[in-house]
């Protein structure tokens, strides 16, 4: 029983079963196709529906899925942008676990070398299918330090710029009460002007009366003979003695006619 138990444990640690020739052929096809595909080809693949894509993968005969195949082409294009044009790669190193198989190799590109990692995972039926492809550029120590220094500089510079902006904003906060007070005074004056304008009565236009014509001055003539004649005439008509009737004043009518 101990021997059988040890045999079972050793079998479980061996990892998934796979055909090396089949996996290597599928991986070589994947790398060759990704390195030759241009933007138009990738756009055509992306324009396919999920059903059409799965049909194409099934017809290829390789253990690919639609999502993993499209993701591998996108990852390859990103690696080309980082490392330059693809030239070739070395032998594969296989690393199998209980649920996945990893193939790694070093590839040569125009600008720099890169590490290729292709991972196959088992599905619910225990069959291996392509999961992902990764292209990682290999940088020298000086390039790594330069990139780290640049990232540090950018990070610290961003922090200091933000702190300066915050300090400037805080320094301007003291002017906010003054601005509020100025705006409140302005609004108060405007409201008071509106209230006074609404309360003020509208000017009433009154007709200016026309000036009455001045009366002509009376011409009073103190003529003794005329007075005596008039007094005598009145006394004769009234049968009153002339001594009993006294003429105080004589006024001339405007028509100059004696009534």
Automatic annotation (TrEMBL):
Species classification: Bacteria, Bacillati, Bacillota, Clostridia, Lachnospirales
Protein name: OadG family protein
Subcellular location(s) of the protein: Cell membrane
Coiled coil: none
Compositionally biased spans, kind Low complexity: 194-211
Alphabetic keyword roster: Cell membrane, Membrane, Transmembrane, Transmembrane helix
UniProt keyword Secreted present: no
Short name of any one Pfam family annotated for the protein: OAD_gamma
Top-level taxon in the UniProt lineage: Bacteria
Segments for region (Disordered): 194-220
InterPro entries (alphabetical): Na_pump_deCOase
Transmembrane segments: 153-176
Signal peptide: none
């Amino acid at each position: 029983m101990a021997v059988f138990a040890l045999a079972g444990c050793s079998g479980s640690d061996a990892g998934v079963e796979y055909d090396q020739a089949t996996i290597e052929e599928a991986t070589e096809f994947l790398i060759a196709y990704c390195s030759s595909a241009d933007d138009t080809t990738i756009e055509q693949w992306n324009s396919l529906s999920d059903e059409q894509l799965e049909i194409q993968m099934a017809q290829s005969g390789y253990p690919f899925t639609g999502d993993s195949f499209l993701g591998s082409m996108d990852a390859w294009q990103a690696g080309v942008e980082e490392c330059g044009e693809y030239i070739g790669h070395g032998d594969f190193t296989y690393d199998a676990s209980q649920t996945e198989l990893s193939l790694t190799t070093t590839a040569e590109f125009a600008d720099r070398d890169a590490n290729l990692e292709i991972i196959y995972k088992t599905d619910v039926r225990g069959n291996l299918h392509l999961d992902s492809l990764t292209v990682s550029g290999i940088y020298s120590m000086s390039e790594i330090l330069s990139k780290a220094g640049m990232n540090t500089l950018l990070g610290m510079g961003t922090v200091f710029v933000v702190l300066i902006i915050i300090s400037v904003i805080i320094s301007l906060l003291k002017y906010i009460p003054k601005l509020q007070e100025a705006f409140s005074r302005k609004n108060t004056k405007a409201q008071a002007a509106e209230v006074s304008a609404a309360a003020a009565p509208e000017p009433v236009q009154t007709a200016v009366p026309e000036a009455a014509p001045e009366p002509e001055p009376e011409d009073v003539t103190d003529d003794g003979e005329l007075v005596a004649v008039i007094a005598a005439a009145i006394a004769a008509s009234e049968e009153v003695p002339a001594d009993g009737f006294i003429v105080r004043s004589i006024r001339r009518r405007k028509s100059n006619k004696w009534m």
